[in-house]
Amino acid sequence: MVAENSSVAEFILAGLTDQLEQQVPLFFLFLGFYVVTVVGNLGLITVIGLNSHLHTPMYFFLYNLSFIDFCYSTIITPKMLMSFVSKKNIISYAGCMTQLFFFLFFVVSESFILSAMAYDRYVAICKPLVYVASMSPQVCLLLLLGVYGMGFAGAMAHTACMVRLTFCDNNVIDHYMCDILPLLERSCTSTYVNELVVFLVVGIDIGVPTVTIFISYALILSSILRIRSTEGRFKAFSTCTSHIIAVSLFFGSGAFMYLKPSSLLPMNQGKISSLFYTIVVPMLNPLIYSLRNKDVKIALKKTLSKKSFS
């Protein structure tokens, strides 16, 4: 498949580095990251699915967060690992556009699932008496449909604008994946519309969840400050800090990558920024959101004991 207005049938992904002595260590490093990501997220999905006492709104969103992290890590990491062990990491035009679409779909979905999780915590802490009614299964399902709906809309907007471009004979993408900005650099035609869509759509996909999260946590912190117990305050602040750090990594690296003009952001810095939200964040999320959680630990022990007994 080749776009009618493009002379390029395939792209070559340059990868993270062209230093030969770094290829093997980086391959095993990121292979280890990917294994931890897969085991952590699939393990969390399994534990939540098998334990009925975890079938609550908070763990419903965690379940979907792990599903999203697993999916978009799998879309990117295996192809990136190929660049470390092959002379040319070739991807077809159709494969590149497919990777771009699903990467954007899951990344945008993650930004909105994080905001849904923050809203859930706000209702649980600030309005506990109406929590069951406010976060009913119907409400949770509508929030989830909104999450994936925004993911689909964002991915379609960017991908539709990308396929209208004409790509030059120089088909080497200076990145480890088919991302928006590296692809725009290979275009022979004007990318003004694409850049406008990047600022508008990414601004919405980062801005709306960020505002939602910060407002939710501001109200949560206000409630925490009313807690008389010092131990209770510390425990609540510790939980919020972990969440805010993970959210800051995801949104901060995304904003740094997409909301600055490409002339001000060298591609090497863009690759490093991309590593945070494509590789590091999916690996850390199970640890930050769940494995430090007492309920998940108990459920994991029960699941493992059942398997050992059987």
UniProtKB/TrEMBL annotation:
Subcellular location: Cell membrane
Keyword Iron-sulfur among UniProt keywords: no
UniProt domain G-protein coupled receptors family 1 profile: residue ranges: 40-289
UniProt xrefs under InterPro entries: GPCR_Rhodpsn, GPCR_Rhodpsn_7TM, Olfact_rcpt
Origin: domain of life: Eukaryota
Transmembrane segments: 26-48, 60-78, 90-108, 196-224, 236-259, 271-291
GO molecular function: G protein-coupled receptor activity; olfactory receptor activity
Annotated keywords: Cell membrane, G-protein coupled receptor, Glycoprotein, Membrane, Olfaction, Receptor, Sensory transduction, Transducer, Transmembrane, Transmembrane helix
GO CC field: plasma membrane
Membrane topology: Multi-pass membrane protein
PROSITE patterns xrefs: G_PROTEIN_RECEP_F1_1, G_PROTEIN_RECEP_F1_2
Summary of the function given for this chain in its UniProt record: Putative odorant or sperm cell receptor.
Protein family (similarity comment): Belongs to the G-protein coupled receptor 1 family.
Record-given protein name: Olfactory receptor
